[in-house]
Amino acid sequence: MDSNSSFIPVASTFTSPFEDSPRPEDPARKPLSLWPGMYHSPVTNALWEARSRIFERLLDPNVDAPPQSQLLTRTPSQSRTTILYNFSTDYVLREQYRDPWNEVRIGKLLEDLDALAGTISVKHCSDEDSMTRPLLLVTAAVDKMVLKKPISVDVDLKMVGAVIWVGRSSIEIQLEVTQPTNARVMAFEDDTCQECSDASEPVALTANFIFVARDSKTGKAAPVNRLAPETEREKLLCEEAEARHELRKRKRGNFPKEIENGEVNRLEALLAEGRIFCDMPALADRDTILLRDTRLEHSLICQPQQRNIHGRIFGGFLMHRAFELAFSTAYAFAGMMPCFLEVDHVDFLRPVDVGDFLRFKSCILYTEFETTDRPLINVEVVAHVTRPELRSSEVSNKFYFTFTVHPEAKTTKNGFRIRKVVPATEEEARRILERMDLESLQVANNMKK
């Protein structure tokens, strides 16, 4: 990511960003109560303030206005946006993001990543014509998110992202979180950022978000503005994103068939281990545990403060809640504090509305022991929209996380071990094999590059 992006400073705040900045020239400004999602993150406040004129149009779109008549061509630099967290000087902001181990709360960071990706998608897809109806842009998936190094809450943090690939009605946005190896001071003058030192900024986290565009009147897929990469790096990122797009299509088309026709032996082997627990529990391997015995669950009613600009529940809020349940599940399973490594994949299968009864169900899907110092704990979280009055329940989201444990923590706990997880039903065995094979395909694809 280069330095041509627009910079957005973030400050700690517990009030609306608009209360102290009225616009006399705009008497028809919407009441504050109609501005959604304002209080759950300082970053959301900053993004709304920076893009308020675009977002105001999205709050109450004129669905009878004509659609965009001509697609535009934009460059990645036109959508590139940077968020700056002044943790070193803003102590209230620091406390809002501090976890019990003096690192940044990953769940809260997931909210911010989704909010930034949403802003970038709006910037790329907007035609800046108030006479046309804007597109409805929704998070479809998080393709991959990798934590490369711990993120301290005492050092300034930078989050930067841009559109790197465009399909007909979908776009991929790559985000990077960087943190200098030593403290630095950020000075803002005339909406630009001047760095007062030249300390290195290693990448701490990378993430790839997939957004899809819908016509706000018909709800059908809508075409989005084209992308014209300029630099060699931008062209390479676009090629890699195109390869991931093809990989996603292969995943959707091939894996259910492969599991049904070619995985009978693997399926039976997994089920055989589980049957011992079910039929002869006294003889079961003590280093193995049934998948169902690793489950946790959390329920909530979705509130208006958690909605996005389209009135639906903010995807970042859902990821935040899913992450914290996954972390707790890994913690209870390992018996010591887990160390987050990756968001393997997130699917947004259907929207979640204000007032929905949402249930998050988690489990340890499987564990890996390729290296004894770094066992991997793979956690699945599935969100269900439950309607008791209709006696129905639908899956809205699927989240997959990977954790490990700190090697130094294991030395302080005698008899430490990570158990192998086995299924008790065929449905559980299929879920395990599908995730294993998807990960293997991802690894194989990366090795070809």
Task: Give a quick summary of the entry.
Residues 83-217, 292-409 form the HotDog ACOT-type domain. By secondary structure, the chain is of the alpha+beta class.
Describe this structure in words.
It contains ten helices and 17 strands. Residues 14-25, 27-39 and 183-199 have low confidence and may be disordered. It is α+β, with helices and mostly antiparallel strands and 449 residues long. The radius of gyration is 23 Å and the shape is globular. The longest helix is centred in the middle third of the chain and has 31 residues, at 232-262. The relative contact order is 0.12. It has helices at 42-50, 52-59, 76-79, 91-97, 106-125, 232-262, 264-279, 315-334, 407-410, 426-448, and strands at residues 6-10, 73-74, 81-85, 135-147, 157-166, 170-178, 186-189, 192-195, 203-215, 226-227, 288-290, 296-301, 338-348, 357-368, 376-387, 392-405, 420-422. α5 (106-125) runs antiparallel to α8, α6 runs antiparallel to α10 (426-448) and α7 crosses α10 (426-448). The protein folds into two domains: 6-14 and 34-182 and 200-228, Hotdog Thioesterase (Thiol Ester Dehydrase, Chain A); 263-447, Roll (Thiol Ester Dehydrase, Chain A). The two termini are 20 Å apart.
Lateral strand order in the biggest sheet: 1-3-5-6-9-4-13-16-15-14-12
Overall pLDDT level: 80
What is the domain tally? 2
- Residue windows where pLDDT falls under 50 for at least 5 positions: 14-25, 27-39, 183-199
Based on secondary structure, the structural category is alpha+beta
Family: Belongs to the acyl coenzyme A hydrolase family.
Region (Disordered): 1-30
Keywords: Hydrolase, Repeat, Transit peptide
Protein name: HotDog ACOT-type domain-containing protein
